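Quick check before the chapter quiz. The format below is the same one you will see on the exam, so make sure you can read both the input and the output lines.
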Amino acid sequence: MFAQIAIGGFATGCIYAVVGLGFTLVYRTLRMVNFAQGHVFMFGAFLGLVIAQKVPMPAPLLLLSVGAVAFVVGMVLERIVFRRLYHNHEVFIVGSIGLGIVLMNGVRVFFPEPVPFPKVFGSNVVEFGTARVQQASLWVVGCTIALVVLLHVMFTYTRTGRALRAVAADGEIAGAVGVNVNRAIGFTFGLSFAVAAIAGVLIGPLYFVSFDMGDMVGLKAFAAAVFGGINSIPGTILGGIVIGVLENVAGGYISSAYKDLVAFVILLIMLVWRPTGLLGRETPIKV
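Here is the expected output.
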């Protein structure tokens, strides 16, 4: 039973980790928190649903399509919405919450009730000893690993990645040496939207999708980022997996009624005990 619970929690934790990466990417660049991230996750799930229903395609192509559309949407929203909010952290937070509510209610107009997601990743069950795991859960884990590797390669070995790291380190100096800071910030928002939207497609076949599905996932992903260190990509991945496993264990051995409590207890403990997170290295988060 423990193996079954742990594997399920690991897959769920990967979703928190991927959505949390969006928080981390934006925070590393602007030192601000985009609380629309959970609703972008929801938007990605419904975008994948519509594409899968209208144009049937292989799962990898579906993930790429949703990621590409979300990337463009993120860059556009950064240009017309977020860029006007950078002058004040509190205004940025309120604006991001407002944008999330707009996204949620925009989807609600077309999908007022939960709907099933096509089984784009297959419906087989894979056995690992005594544990039985849905094939879709393996896609979640595999795609999370692939995303982390791709991000590492981009940030380490590409000119664009080095520019993003320079802006994250010091935007003024980066601009002085020729980096287009506004373009780098727009690219960062595009990436944050893309990874969250892909996470929405990954979780879709495991559950019904609904317009409010991003509320709790967004908050848990934020807790994962704070737990691991919101300025640390490895820390966010670690935080997501730990929270996913612990909440599944709590749900399996204590009560499912307390499952959602785990992430927020961890969030409160970390904000009080170590605001920089386990692997964070910079100034503590300000919300």
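If your answer matched, good. The mean pLDDT is 89.
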